[in-house]
Amino acid sequence: MANDDKIIRLRPHHLLCTQGYSGKGYDEKFVLNMTMITDRMRKDPALKVQIVFSTDDICRFCPRKRGEGICADDEKVLIFDKGVVSLLDLEEKIYDYQDLITKVHEKMTHEKMKEICGICEWYHMSACEKNILTGKYLLRK
Predict the structure, then answer these.
(1) pTM for the whole structure
(2) What is the 3-state secondary structure (H, E, C) of 96-123?
(3) Distance from C-alpha of 6 to C-alpha of 1, rounded to nearest angstrom
(4) b/e burial code for range 59-72 (CB count within 10 A of at least 16 → b)
(5) Rounded to a whole number, what is the distance in angstroms from the first to the last CA of the chain?
(6) Which residue blocks in the chain are alpha helix, DSSP H?
(7) Using CA atoms, how far apart are residues 64 and 101, in angstroms rounded to an integer?
């Protein structure tokens, strides 16, 4: 991310991950980037995100990224993305971030969370489900 007014590029399942993120990750560069992105998401009520069906700004420093549009865990992350696209009827375009996470909060259930994220390595140690179901980061309640 070059500056604060740049739109954040986000793959669909990262709408969930960013709500559960708690400062842990693959390595220092990944954590620093993820922290910058999630801090902005959690504080800026007017933030816009561009949904992309590929690698995004969070993937930028991920050691699992193998190239543009290629993740070592594609088999899993594409399943996560498909679940979120289906839940929210997403397209590749720009959205208001708070509108999206409000829709996630309204439509998500414990069962859907487990269905979409159950095979994620971070699922059992993260606060994703708790934060999403309680609407922790909804800035326009």
Answers:
(1) 0.91
(2) EHHHHHHHHHHHCCHHHHHHHHCCCCCH
(3) 7
(4) bebbeebeeeeebe
(5) 28
(6) 14-20, 28-43, 74-88, 97-107, 110-117, 128-134
(7) 26
The predicted structure's pLDDT at residue 25: 80
Phi, psi of 67 (to 5 degrees): 160, 175
123 — pLDDT class (breaks 50, 70, 90): confident
Surface-to-core class of residue 27, CB atoms within 10 Å of its CB (0-12 exposed, 13-18 middle, 19+ buried): exposed
Give bridge partners of residue 70 from the DSSP assignment.
Answer: 67
Calpha distance 102→108 (Å, rounded):
10
